[in-house]
Amino acid sequence: MPATVEAPLAVLFTLPGGVTYRRRLDDLPNQRLAAHLAAGLAAATHPHGPIRTRSVAMQYVQTARRMVRELHDAEFGGGLSELSPAVIVEYWLGCDFHRERRIRAILAAYAATGGVLDAGVGRHLQGRRINQIVKSRPNPPYSDTEWRRLTAACTELITSLRRAHRQVLATIEADTKPDEHGASADNLARLLYQNGPATAATILDRLGPTATARVGRVEVLAARRALYPDADTALAYLTLFAMRTGIVPDGIDALTLDDITRTSTSTILVSYTKGRTGREALNLPRDAVRLLDRWLEHSAQLRAHAGDQAENVWLYVPADDRGTGHGLIYTRPRTQTRRAAFAATTGLLDDDGRPLRLHGGRIRATYQHRRDRSTWTGRTTIDPNHSAQVEGDHYLHSHTTAQLDALETIIEQAQTDLRRKGEPPIIITGQDAAEFAANFPALVERAGLDADAITALLSGQQDVFVAACASPTNSPHAPAGTLCPARPWVCLLCPLATFAPRHLPNLLRLKSFFARQGTQMTAAQFLAVFGPYAGRLDEDVLARFAPADIAAAARLAGEHVAEAALPLHLEELAQ
How far is 499 from 515, CA to CA, in rounded Å? Predict the structure, then answer.
């Protein structure tokens, strides 16, 4: 069985990975309710329920104990079979989401194993939860300055303690006659090296009564810390390892030597357990490989005296004298108390000047955040496997002659469009061909006009809706030799268009059309579709005509308002 109920009342959990956890319930006031909840806890243990780790088991037991005490204070003295829907709903109303979820899991597991529950309570277990989960906030990454301070603190501590560790080992190996030195620091190190970690009192007893006058407890603890890593040392290695790999905190804490596979002299494959997905593997980066090798070297002497605990990666000896024998060796340096003590010992501060809180989730979030930023150059690439420089050299630099001609053509067309939009409109008032050719030589040259073509342009034979076109079959909006397909308002920005007083009625009708479209379209849509043309019409074209001509044209345009309606494409319609 994954969990059993013992007498006196207690629950013994046997969890995956060989982890055991026992918690007593015989000290609770309502023993009948406590016994029923103990049976529910045993039934809710993995693989039959959600209790699969020690921390989760602790949370579930604490929830059950609190439920017994609070219902007893509310004068409920029965078991789960006497629990009415009114009582459980009233209790759930005072819970948060997680407590209600755990209680529901315990009651459902109790009922699944044959326990008797009220029918109304069973219907509530199948329905919706009363309390809604509060949306959690993602772990914020550490700032760059906090990350650098944390890296520097771990690196400095590791460097100093590793140097002291090597010096002690060198002294032990060089000391061939330890008995001649009596009670000294070297003899303390040798005694600890041969017999394993022990309390200061044990070491002093072994040295004899004459040694206590020359060597004290402080010297013993200093020698032990130099030879065997303490909690701060192990936590520094572990934290720096997490910063260089981004492995989930619970996966790092539970690492064993069997999870480490050396694939070559400089590469290591680490397998770890991620609680939400299961087993995963990571090929460690080079700096993480070097760090892990240094830690295994630093903890090798302690591992030789660890017995069954030697398979755990993060071994350490506490700085004080808690426990005896193998009880001095621990395997979980990243506890809440140790993290706070580490920040206080190293003087780590956050950006606000307060002690920096070490949080495994924030370390992982910062690792991923920095990794994403390190690979982003601010520029997109055609192939994600190429850098911007590689693509610039291979795709934008090495071109054939035809490709270079095509690129130059595109650039020339873009420059021509910009220049064309900046040129003033061509307004004609006279009908003399010679005067027109003298005033607009650029247009004559660009369109290839002769005397007959200029006469046709001035007489209105080449009129379109709002202008006269110098060359309808040589438009910049269509291939050469084909008739221009442009919309009527496009002529306002065309270099071949000329505007005469006879075009004013249609120009005013076009202005009315722009006004109606402006009321039916959003400002962004109108500016994108008609904005440049409306601005050219108001500011450049109509402004160059005499007010009398505009007034006469307005009267003429008003008589044919219905004629101002123009066929539109889909993108030009109001949306």
Answer: 21
